[in-house]
Amino acid sequence: MPLSPTLLAAIPLAIWIYLLLARGNFWQVREEETQPEPLPNWPRVAAVVPARNEAGTIARTVSSLAGQDYPGEFSIVVVDDHSEDGTVALARKAAAESRAAERIAIHSAADIPPGWTGKLWALNEGAQAASEGKPDFFWFTDADVVHAPDALKRLVFRAEKDSLDLASLMVLLQAKTFPERLLIPPFLYFFLLLYPPRWIADPNASTAAAAGGCILLRRNVLAPIGGFASIRGEVIDDCALARAVKSRDGRIWMGLTRASVSLRSYGSFAEIRDMIARTAFTQLRYSLVLLIVALAGLFATFLLAWVLFFAYPGEAWLLVDSAIALMAACFLVTVRFYNLSAAWVLTLPVAAIFYGYATCVSAARYWLGRGGQWKGRAQAARRN
Question: Do 188 and 167 share a structural domain?
């Protein structure tokens, strides 16, 4: 017996009531606004920047790191992960032209051992090189991110004030092209839905995540978790690191910022599809069952109410309209975070369809032995 429109409409409404009230207030997108105060002793910090074929951005990244207004000792290690586009030369040039050339080292990563992903091997190499200066913190940041001059000071102060072992900031992603405006705010929204920051910071919750573009990690917690070797094969390396730290009773935290900005631009839908497809099926633990559940969840949450709105006009209108209104209200804060018109909230179902498609692409690539594509490497090749 088919379900009536009223019963069907109750499904998305119940989901959105749960998301609004019981999912850690993930939709309340708030920028980190901690104002640093003087500390008796500012910790030593070593930035580690893994770079593979980042000729278009590495100079600006190095310059922004060299320009940090940080009161403590601060050094920078750029790890060349077998670049083929002149990244090393541009990094050296930017270092030489900065006012901090003596604090910047360029390290060439050794060949990647079997079982390691490229980025984690580069981070491991960089951490070992930076450890010679015995820093209190590692600051892992991507080679396509620029930071405001006070970014490090703010992050260190937050870590010291709250006794954090790992503090991470989601950098601001570009939302300028049409594909970016349609799909990047939902990217942030879906990430926060999966990993509510309140739950991440709660030591009693199992939720753990970090944003790889900007992670501050106490050096003395790396050895107890087994170093990067303990997560060497992880494709979603930032969240794996956060899980490892939290599993050892470490205190972790993740916030949002506009003070650190990604330089990477996505001019086409294909580029964003590939970005999503790199890790989507990994997130589902390469499970066909979880893929089906995820697709069903996307449909029930983001599409069902709209299907009922058009297929059964006037029926169960209160339930349908309430579900759509809650969906729009929850997404509006994210849209405003990107300074976009409120009208963009109506595109969330379209974005959900695209993310479902990209997740299917991710699964297909995994099954074809091309999973986890990053910088020309398949990091999640299917294991027989």
Answer: yes
